[in-house]
Amino acid sequence: MSRGKRIKGIRRDSKVTIMVNGQPVQAYEGETLHAVLIILGIWALKASRINHDPRGVLCGMGVCHECLVTINGKSGQRSCMTLVEDGMEVRTYGS
Amino acid sequence: MGHEDPRRQVVIIGAGLAGLSAAQVLAGGGASVLLLDEGLRPGGQYLKRPSPPLGDNPSLPQEARRKKGLEIIKAVKSLGLECRPCTQVLGVEPDGRAGWMVWGETASGVLAAWRSDFIIIASGAREKFIPFKGWTLPGIISTGAVQLLLKGSGVVPAAEVVVAGSGPLPLAVAGELIKAGSRVPALLDYGSLAQKLAVVKLGSLAWGKIWEGIRHQARLMASGGKLRNRTAVLEGRGHGRLEEIVTVQLDRRGKPMSGSQSVLAADCLAIGHGFAPNIELAQQAGCELEHDPLKGGWVVRVDGDLQTSLPACYAAGEVSGIAGAEKSYIEGRMAGLLIACKLDLISGNRVDSEIADLVKRRNQQLQLGAFINRLCHPPAGLGDLIEDETIICRCEDVTAGEIRAQIGSGATRLTDIKLATRTGMGLCQGRTCGPMLEAIIQTWPDAAGPEPPPPLPARMPVKPFNLSALVEMDLEKESEYRG
């Protein structure tokens, strides 16, 4: 399973901890949520409406709505348009 | 709607390069300007950069245009201009006898309306795709999304990424991925080498782009990646996520060649086939559109002064034709200067020579754009590449087979297909499938003719928003807003 990687040589200082499907995960302030999920190797983010097939990031710019996740109990949030915040609780496909 | 805002002289929708350069001119001239943008920060896609405290990505090419763009952001900030990021514009409507009312959901989730004498629609563009069986599998991501991950979060999507598509972006993304530490085992270009080499006909206009392309290609070759021209993706396979892809070679006319299929292991595939303008807001406002394949398909029609068909409504940047960052900058500046003249902030004869220069440069960029948009045209064999099981409308899980059944029984308009199948009725409101539907209809063997089918209609709200925003709206005040 492929995972995203943080590019070396980019300054990252303020660490935050977010909960992804009940597990604590470390990330850095300024990162978008979809980037952090890709780093974790979590590609399946939502279920399609009719067939309930797994879907993940496509456009990465707020258009396609394929990267929707549940954030702090609120469903249908675009992970590509959301910055991580300390204590954020995230649920993805099948969790 | 919690608050009534003062009327501005200009509301600019979209804080990309076009919106920013318009804002710089107008605010610099003393106009009251409000800049609205959906993104986390002003800059749009081209000037995307990390949100503080994340540092910038030194491995990205710092082309001159990008540097200048970032300076505009600084300049606009120092002018004290009012900019509202994280704001979803939902629609615009005429405000009484003159001017406009722009509706949007604010960053705090409240429905708001802003009035202005002029509006500039600078809503940018989105990526286009050529779908294939299995393209909805997680792990398949757009080339633009990869670039935004690199620029915005300093992240590569995988250790190994296969890149496929048309036009210059796939090559650029492959080069940037390699520079950032990923491996790109293969770059599949749907176009032919001859098509790309025709770029030399553009002469000095394209030198910068050619040089950039050569460097990316050298990087790909040096890293052991293979460039395969006239090669398309026929299928993505995997259990719950991408595991392998099936590729096929295209003949000179762009049709898949039998027996040329091969299987390639891939758990991350970046795809993209050029751009389509985000016309929906202008369309909802009632602006006339025009169809020009050399501008990226359906675009907002503007006159030589960048005015749309509606009074006091301008369009700048990709929304009136795909041609890249330089055109967006030029048009933003033009629209800003021309509106500043109308507001009597500057005198017309002081800007005449600059406008003439901008017009000349704009025409050059349109030529460059026409070349790039031509590279991104769907291949003639599109019908054979999209098998019936292929999902076209990702939001509503509608397949190419279901859509073809409608076309076969006489549907010629996108609206007919939408009503019969729910294609384009989902959360993205047809933004992803619309351009594909158009291509499927046009490549249908019994296609009605060369006339392109009209785009799906756009109504307010043009993007989904939270119903809770309505709760915050003071309905009694609504009559005042409609003044």
Structural class of chain A: mainly beta
Low-confidence runs of chain B: 475-483
Over the alpha carbons, how many angstroms does the gyration radius of chain A reach?
13 Å
User: Largest interface by residue count?
Assistant: A-B, 49 and 55 residues
Describe the sheet with the most strands of chain A: 5 strands, mixed
Looking at this protein, list some descriptive labels:
heterodimer, A: 95 residues, mainly beta, five-stranded mixed beta sheet, 8 strands, B: alpha/beta, five-stranded parallel beta sheet, 22 strands
Characterization of this structure:
The complex is a heterodimer of chains A (95) and B (483). Chain A contains one helix and eight strands. In chain A, strands 3-2-8-6-7 form a five-stranded mixed sheet, with helices on one face. Chain A has a two-stranded antiparallel sheet with strand order 4-5. By secondary structure, chain A is mostly beta strands. The longest helix of chain A is centred in the middle third of the chain and has 7 residues, at 33-39. Chain B is α/β, with parallel strands linked by helices. In chain B, the strands form six sheets. In chain B, strands 1, 2, 3, 4, 5, 6 and 20 form a seven-stranded mixed sheet that branches. Chain B has a five-stranded parallel sheet with strand order 8-16-10-11-12. In chain B, a hairpin with a 4-residue loop joins β18 (289-292) and β19 (297-300). Chain B is globular, with a radius of gyration of 23 Å. The two termini of chain B are 15 Å apart. Mean pLDDT of chain B is 93; it is low at 475-483. β1 (5-6) of chain A pairs antiparallel with β9 (155-156) of chain B, so a sheet runs across the interface.
